[in-house]
Fold each of these.
Amino acid sequence: MQEDVVIHRKKPIFPISAELHKYLHKYQREAKLPIGYSDLLNFRESVPLTDKNGRDTLWESPIYPPGEIEHIHNGLKKIYAMLNTSGNISIVEHKYIDRIDYCTFGNTHPFRIRIVNRLNDVYDYFYVKKADASRIYGLELEHTLSPNDVNYLVDHTTLVEEHIAGIPGDAFPRTYMNHPEYNPIRIAKEFVKFNERCLIMLLGDMRSYNFVLQITPDFDDFQFRIRCIDFDQQFYEGNRKVYMPQFFKENLAYVKLAMEHLTDKTVWQYQQEERSMLVHRIRSERHRLAHLRDVANRDVLSTEENVHQLKSGLAEYFHNPDYLKCGSMVDIVELNIKNVIRQII
């Protein structure tokens, strides 16, 4: 039976500590950006942004003072170059900023930047957000433990992220899930593996509008990959179901697909496959993960109440009293990882 998991409180923004800044510098995630998040807030008016069907997208298009537009656009083009080519400005000589969108909901109130190549009208997006420590830890865990590379930069209170292309998870069931050439078992398999990764890494709130599906044609079929696009709820909530996408009503179409096409045995098989791949990634990134753990354990990233609720819930769920010894969300993630290693080896 599908349950409705509710997140009652908005997660606070956690500041980036000096130790986390050192970590980001070591792994080339830190950069001196030409403009910051606060510069993009310098607007007094905005107009609602609608989609091609005239529906409100909940994004706004800010209107900047004429004297600041050139400075902002030049700064954003340089940021794009830093994000994609280590600062090679020549790649943006023929590009222009077509649109800046502002989102008033969500924890980080992001700006979405659309940049266009004037030679062929090909466009790309990237995002400028408030820097949040727990979000950065989520990005790092995604980069090191998932099959996906993540590209981002941090400058004090500004976070810049690349755009992750894909079909929005809430639109996919309506428009693509029943495509005659798509194997529903492969879609269900990917959802099971995604669910497994989220629980192990404590990546929360993966409702369908917070992930995308990437489709890759293979020589005899299509492969699917679910990718998270929102890391706001990284190991903060105390309810374990927040870290299991299967419990969100927004994901009901994916749950039904798995129930229809998978057996308990195949679900277990796909979970083991994902855990095995996690072990390979853990081995190759063990030093970086240890460094990340040591830095994160010095930060306050949740409440004592949430930590207690989650460790108690996981101890019951996994029938493992070791969770009750955990003192932080980071300890819980580390125990999750250790349990995966013990199970596979």
Amino acid sequence: MKIAFSKPSLPASGAVAVGILEGKVLTGTAQALDAQAKGGLARAIAASGRFEGKKGQTLLILAPAGLELSRVLLVGLGKAKDLDALAAQAFGGTVVGQLQTSGDADVAVALDVIPGSPLSPAEFAAQAALGARLRSYRFDKYMTKQKKEDKPSLKKLSLLTDAAADAKAAFGALDKVADAVFLTRDVVSEPANIIHPESLAEKAESLKDLGVEVEVLGEKQMKKLGMGSLLGVGQGSERESKLVIMRWSNAAKKDEAPVAFVGKGVTFDSGGISIKPGAGMEDMKWDMAGAGAVIGALAALAGRKAKVNAIGVVGLVENMPSGTAQRPGDVVTSMSGQTIEVINTDAEGRLVLADALWYTQDRFKPKFMVDLATLTGAIIIALGNEYAGLMSSDDKLADRLTAAGKAVDEKLWRLPLGESYDKQIKSDIADMKNVGGREGGSITAAQFLKRFTNDVAWAHLDIAGVAWSKKDVATCPKGATAFGVRLLDRLVADFYEDKK
């Protein structure tokens, strides 16, 4: 779908989307259309009975007499004072969600100046375009018999604004972030016979085209480094485990300590010998969503030429049961030298991250580390599908992550850490065990990870409940969300990027 910005001019054909403020207040273009239709829009609103112009409400009407258009989409904007960046994104996304398969190839979106809005016209248009782009994502490459009415018809979205030139300029960087989101959604959506450690490493290597340095370690190299924790998870699979290191550098400050992001990349999680129930196991293709988000975050930073030094490290494994698989009760030695009693082979993500985190802090000496992982089912019980869990050793980092998440609607909720939780992972025969029981399961998993951060400022994001959506939302169709890509990009942009 092509996105264009142009000066306001009502089209003579196709579909038009216009905003309606809460209280059925028609914006300028809506008033003009209503006048041409001799009150047709106002009558449609009155007849609907429920359309009030509240945020997210829609009313799709066939163009009434007096208009040569195919249809008019009325989208509720809510109150003018609440029209921030997220509201603008939701507006653009809602338009695409409603009209993507309508049969119309061209849609014009009227963006009137709205007094009282906190955004400038250019900012509103750019953010609406971002929302439209994000909502346009589809993963239908394996569908060979789609009905015509289910296929996207929308080819061009024209945003009509007096600030077209400024909006186009502002959208440039946002569009690169959307590219990164799509990359992550793609790899998370792919089945496990397509995305496995080797092929996901190849996807990461494609970032070289953006100027990212990419290094891939195989099992021999990891064994030499002493990564027994990570390697133990993948030893039951025929697929070779990989560790991928991505580096984006700011040429002006190459010697400055980088920010670092670490991702869990279990490309399929059967549970290993502690095998999962069959029902829903197909969802475990996206147990690599943390790694996908880190790859996407590096793509976003590189795509928009962020003025920062950033490291992305992802541990890629396949957790399978076989005659060579790791067993409950095995003891492995991590790169840090700490030993781990493996009580449950289905608590494997933390074993992967243990070595990835240690490697990252040991080699790169970063300002901080943030890891992302679909780590525990317990976080879904605690927070549902609305928030990711946040656990951190550093209050400033936690606060900045929370603020960045709020800004892009990737919400975080902080949970505690503490000595009592740490005691739950005490082992009788090793330095620690990989599970601490049912109580506080997400927290004890984080306590486990903290032991491999070596006092570097660190935060853990448990994204198990938010990496995949079971329903359409304004800026994301159901499926892979790419949660974390925009959050990490915003974290860097707001708090760590050189603004000069």
Amino acid sequence: MPVPILLVAGFLGAGKTTVVNHLLAHAQGRRIAAVVNDFGAVNIDAELIAGASDGVVSLSNGCICCTLEGDLLRTLATLLRRDPRPEFIVIETSGVADPSDIVRNLMDPVVWKEAPLETVLCVVDATQPAARLDDALLRSQLRAADVVALSKADLASAEQRAQVRDSIRAIRPAAVVVDAINGEVPSALLFPADLDRVPMPRETESRRPAVDRFETLSWTSERPVRLPRLQQAIGRLAPKLARAKGLFETVEQPGRLMVFQLAGGRATLAAGGTPTPGQPRARIVFIAEMGVLSRAEIDATMEGCVEPG
């Protein structure tokens, strides 16, 4: 029996991981395998998905629309050989991925026979200015979508939500637009009720030349950080960042991980469980436009956050 694929797209920091976590936490008995692609050498997202459980496969250090195409197809083949076989596969793309390129790969007849693409879900930050949707990459993500989930809708005003909805409809009139508070999207919109039904293949746009727009710079430390110093360092780097995320242990709370997220100019901290043996005490990924941020600047800024050995 074919295994339907749900493709989750969305710009940097839109809230894709929150949506995927909600799907896995409310699987309602479904066997769901998740493929997580992060842009950078340190795959933070895979660790934030349902505790990086056995059902989560990580693709890192690239974008699956280009450099990791072969890895994606091999990963799908591996998942389909599992016993028991998953009933659904969720692929979370990186924030810099163009879904049209991934859709093209999934239209391969061999892949389609075993794992047809059922739904493309695009997650959009409802708090961002509607003008942000003019971004070429974000427009490409929206044009591929069957369903658009407005994340952080509870943080946006009614006027903001209305403006973003109008902009989405202008780009992708056929998409179903729903609020996704805390990552909740109605499963009926994402998964087929009839598992014997095979969706129709999709039309795909012609391949466009890949243009490197973003780069990632990862920072790690074998020693814990002092939280006030880290907050000051992030504040200095924030104007140059498109996105940042990380896991770290602090001097103030040893033996406990903190989860750091920076998206849309907002920084958040949350409890993240216990450290994994063998992993650095601090791991942070910084994403910026090409050439805006240097390795030397990150190292010099972050050096002062670490407790001297």
Amino acid sequence: MILSPVRPAATAFAVVAVLAAPALANDVHVFAAASMANAMAEIEAGFEAATQHDLVVSLAGSSVLARQIQQGAPADIFISANPGWMDVLESGGLLEPGTRFDLLNNSLVLIAAGTEAPDIQIGPEMDLAGLLGAGRLAMALVDAVPAGIYGKAALDSLGLWDTVKTQVAQADNVRAALAFVTTGEAPFGIVYATDAVASENVTVVGTFPADTHPRIIYPAADLANRDTAAEAAFMDYLRGPEARAAFERQGFGFVAE
């Protein structure tokens, strides 16, 4: 089952945007994974104040953004929620050589609707199907979006995927999956820990063990379409203390050197 995407509330960014107008020299167009919405709001304000450059951010599932870049969308910087989609662009010659680096990491959590849900021990013995009852498990697209791919891998590792796969409600990106739980359309969901921090209407009931899924890494890279001082300034800013503080406030682990 795939539900229609829900746009997260209170975000100033486009969920998906194909930018048609030519970029100005002092503009930086960033395509970033949807799970970074709150952190990128802070980054935008801080970067613009520090540099006087303009930051334009488009948010969506990493797969959607990567495909738009392949089709010629004039993005300058790509930040993916997993290395796989960055690998696709790199193999296609779409990255500026030597600019790719690992920026962030994250963890994967099970969330429940409401603010008082009890903790759940996540392991092979967890009766997730029983917990769902007739309800749905909200996840990002399990074959395309990183959060969904990681979530499916974790459930597979625990021997639970086959017991719940018919009850999974897939959303176009992880913030849309979060919204399904926030609004009560699904009683449970699998999202990043940073997404759960962004909502006051869900409870983290458990964290998936790190060994149940590939390590969640967010790589960043400059795209090989133009080269401006503004792009270089933003790549430096991403590695700096102000960006690190913004990311860590939103629950990310900062891995960039």
